[in-house]
Amino acid sequence: MRRSIYTKGLILGFLMTGLLMSNIQAQNLSSALLLTKSEQYDKAEEMLNQLIQKEPSNAKNYFHLGENYLLEYFADTISISFQIATDKAKETYQKGVNANPNDPLNYVGLAKIALYQGDDKTAGEIRTKAKSFLLPYKNIKKIQPPAPEYAYALAKIAESFVREKSADTASALPLIRQAIKIDPKNPEIYLIAGDIYIAVNDGSNAIKNYNLAQYYNPKSPTANMKIGNIYVRGKNLNVAIPYFEEAIALDPNYAPAYRELAQLFALAGRHAQSKENYQKYLDLNKGNIPAMTRYVTSLFYAGDYEEVIKNIEEIFAVDKSRSYMNRLAGYSSFELASKSKNGSYDQAFKYMDQLFKTLPEERILWKDHHYMARIIVRKNQNYPALLDELSSLENQLENQKRSLTGAGTAAAKAKIQPAINELTAKIETLKADIEKADKELDRAFIEFDKVSEIRPQDKTVLSEMAANYYNFRRYDKAARTWARLIDPNEENLESFMQVGRAFYNGRNYKSADSLFNVIIKKSPDYLPAHLWLARTSTRIDPDNKTELAKNRFISLTRIAQPDSLKNRSEMAEAFNFLGYYYMNNNELNKARDLYNRWLNFDPNDSDYRIRAYQGIGAIELIAASSQPTIEGRLGYLTRSKEAYERILAIDPRNTSAVNQLNYVRDYEAQVKKGINPNEIKGIIRDAGTGQPIAFASVRVKDTAAEILTNTKGEFKFEIPKSSEALIISAPGYQSQEIPVTKSRIYNVSLAK
User: pTM here?
Assistant: First the structure.
């Protein structure tokens, strides 16, 4: 009997011990989950690992540890590597599966990882596996696993349909409704439901579910925190603040609420309250470097970049091993330099360079590559100016060298040589700076490439990369990068134009020509494509050996003409080219007509009028030089002078017109020197037929001075200075008396 009592007592003792241990385990798990919700992820990890050591076959501990890793990552995506976080979580979930292959939760965790990594197919297969452990039921009381576990597993499967900023609600919400039906008082299910609605920007349904979570767990600050965040997202800060204050009232040690309040007060300009709440957050997390990191991260998102750098330097002062903090310091230095004079791209580069040197490759984030690329680009933003300066200095050096060669004396050469030496030194220094910048920019574009490899669907990065290639005059790469963004069926013609212009500026004229032709096939009257196609033709055939450019500029004027005032710049460019083309090919009448057309194109545009007069002046000058006689040149030279004088009437300081006018006047003076002022000439014709009259008499009135025309009706002779009239006669024709004027040419028609 005593033995029986003893045995029962022993069994009861074992049972009580088991119950007590089970209760302690449950309490420990609850404590760990509270630590996770309080964002004390390192302490939660430590406690969950202790639970796993004590109870290695309990799959749920592995699941919650995996969740802890993921939540820690999403709380600080800047400092924590996605790859490392998902690898750790995946390994932990797999251990949970090994510990208990029949528990659905760790399969759900693996499905989440697959979804985050973009493998929807695998995620779906693993979800199906997880659901297979949730047996069909008719009676909730007899459900297996037990109702609370069954409902929680369903909710977690629903949660696995949520990815960053999106959710498959068609798949997730039916599972949530089923979970609520099974366990309608579980606040965790309502929190998950609210999170799903948040992912699709349905704030009202999210708040509804968060309120239900608060109702079923009135002492938890989590729901208030989540509702507050909804109003923050909606920029309704005054409504958000009471929810965070309520979360603190429910749990004065709930650190995240202080951090959120601090950010809100900072945004509202209530800086004293902001600092007070930040200090409370730090006090609650004293000595907790990860919490300090999250605090610094929150400062970064709040735009307080100087404070970020200050706090990171304080962390480095006591713990230099936290090299990942260089990340936020580099980001903040970049943002500060972009927005104010207090920042430094050089300092940003130093932080990021240290990050890359001290962290293994797998811990480098895509954002690190992106920031490094942008930092280097901004650090070298004067690169195009350096290239322009180099070109200018090299031209100056060439001019000085020519002057040195032409200098006639040693003294003259001695004056020029110092300038050559100075320019040579400047050029060498500049070339060294450009070479250094080129190497840095090469790295920037390597970093852009890495971002593109990690995020192949991110078109904004490709666009940014292409724009920087273009700005730094790597035109061919700009074109090829922009081309990667184009859908061949795309109707946005400007996208194609962007590529074509880059090829053009990179002197890849054949590719540019092809692109502009593609655009014209898509839209035959698209004026920008015709303009750039015509420009490209001038580069392909710079000597105008073919008529390709001419024909394309003529097509351009045809398309631009219906709305010529709107398309005035395109018309002007076409006039400019065609006028030069005709002039160069000695088609002076066509050139003259075109410049006169340009002259009348827009009478109010002085620039157009000046350019047209320049063309006319040049045409008349060319025409004058081609005249066979000295006298024939004067009329053209007069018209050339008039054109340049009209330019000066519009713009008295036009140096080009002044120089051209002086040249024409000098030319005219030289022509006049070769003229005998008393020499006259002309042709005598039949008034009826227009045929020349041979052997007609040309006599000076009241003198014996006379000459007969040749067989072509031409005459030329010197007349006395005091001559007043000419008597023109021929057998069978009526004589004419012609007054002598300043003219030196007398063409006369005689009637029979």
Answer: 0.63
